[in-house]
Amino acid sequence: MKYDPIKRKLGVVFNSAPFLRKLFYHLLDLLLLRSWHIRKEVKWWAKSVSGKQMILDAGSGFGQYDYYLASKNKDWTIKGVDVKQEQIDDCNQFFNKIGLTNAAFAEADLTKINESDKYNLVLCVDVMEHIEEDELVFKNFYKALKPKGMLLVSTPSDQGGSDVHHDHDDHQDGAQGFIDEHVRDGYGIQDITDKLKRAGFSRSEVYYQYGPPGKIGWKLSMKYPIMMLNTSALFYIVLPFYYLVTFPFVLILNAMDVANSHKTGTGLVAKAWK
Asked: I need a labelling partner for 124 at 20 to 30 A (CA). Which of 44, 161, 234, 255 fits?
């Protein structure tokens, strides 16, 4: 099963008009549980700050979180970076087209960024599992943050959150599976806590996401649709009707996952402060 080819196909459709891309962002915010957790933590962080803020989205991809941040507060300046130049060009074009001038994008390798005391918040979603030199990147994030700045990371856990094996390994019910380029099976809470401490962070908080309700919601919202779309293109026609039935259940399950703490989960959220 492949995720990226389907994502590209959907991107072509939703990128055909600005209102469709905005709709796509909103759908992702509702369907993707990690987006629920990220938005919850951003809202929590926003209560502790005021005035102009500098934010780095480390691994901006399609620009989903940059759109959320740039729309939420005009006093926030967002820099999105990614290793894929086509993603950078696409996001710059789209954000300029819709007039969100407080967000801009640039190509960057996170192992080579060299900025000091610049950002109040560094956001890193579904990126660290792809980077071998993760401690170097954490050190770069620490250096780039202003004093008291916060790093917010979402990544697979070592509880089955990273499908780094074969596509037919059905036992890997990872919340963020279908990715071929993961370099590790996910992080343990103590593992990422220790790495953040060695990078220089004064304190951190790490918790599981994609607990029991989130895992069920992920299967309904992502796993089963992707399985169908990989089987036949005809399921692109069926998909709206599928979501019409499952969407209310996904919303309830996502809300339950965000509202409760979990003893285990296939994803992790990590917050760390300089």
From this structure: 255
Q: What is the side-by-side order of every strand in the sheet holding 103-107?
A: 103-107, 76-82, 53-58, 119-125, 145-156, 267-273, 203-209
209: enclosing H helix or E strand: strand 203-209
All domains in the chain, ordered by first residue? 4-211+263-273 (3.40.50.150)
Rounded-to-integer distance, Cα 123 and Cα 103, Å: 14
- Between 161 and 241, name the one with better pLDDT: 241
pTM of the model: 0.90
CA dist., res. 160 & res. 79, Å (int) = 32
Q: Which amino acid is at 100?
A: L
CA atoms within 13 A on the CB side of 231: 11
- 3-state secondary structure at position 59: coil
Q: What is the pLDDT of residue 149?
A: 98
161-204 pLDDT, tens per residue?
A: 544 333 333 333 333 333 457 888 899 999 999 999 999 999 99
pLDDT digits (tens, 9 = 90+) for 43-75: 999 999 999 999 999 999 999 999 999 999 999
d(CA 211, CA 225): 20
